[in-house]
Amino acid sequence: xxxxxxxxxxxxxxxxxxxxxxxxxxxxxxxxxxxxxxxxxxxxxxxxxxxxxxxxxxxxxxxxxxxxxxxxxxxxxxxxxxxxxxxxxxxxxxxxxxxxxxxxxxxxxxxxxxxxxxxxxxxxxxxxxxxxxxxxxxxxxxxxxxxxxxxxxxxxxxxxxxxxxxxxxxxxxxxxxxxxxxxxxxxxxxxxxxxxxxxxxxxxxxxxxxxxxxxxxxxxxxxxxxxxxxxxxxxxxxxxxxxxxxxx
Length: 248
Description:
This protein is of the alpha+beta class. It folds into 3 domains: about 1-95, RimP-like superfamily, N-terminal (GMP Synthetase, Chain A, domain 3); about 100-175, SH3 type barrels; about 185-235, no CATH class.
């Protein structure tokens, strides 16, 4: 359940973002004891948290330009009394970061399959926080034609959440896997190497036992000859072993 102030400012800020070639991701208003925070989140068009590429983020210069333009717009709206914020507040313009906020229906659909945390408003009859994988959206139906439904797959079932009852939603941070350090074997490869050593040892033992058996047979028969052993595939006979913002 977003504040009326955030919804009003979204209509004003979105065109400013278009001018600078970025998209408005979210407008959030937080109010504490006697102070407020207006957070504007922007991103490159088509920005995706699954793409771990810092070079494709929003530059510091763009953040500065948006901050300047939004600040001037707020001053103009307050002068015309079209906007009333009766507490001192901080303006913060930022890029999404690892926990990208979700507000637009298109984002809920675009990031289907990713996990998210959704905080519900007081009118929601259910848990205050829902965690699960996004499963797209659907129309609100005749009774709620002005909103949409967010589908979330939890451990037990798929919940359908009305957008007007969502207080705040964010994607869970996507943590990329750390690459294996050079010279360090992974658990899987280490286990495979150990198995190879065991198999090489068993083959060598079999060769030695065969050698001793032939030698004993030759001695019992009184024969004088050199015992030989036929090569066994995968075992070398040379003794080698398997290796292991702005204040307002």
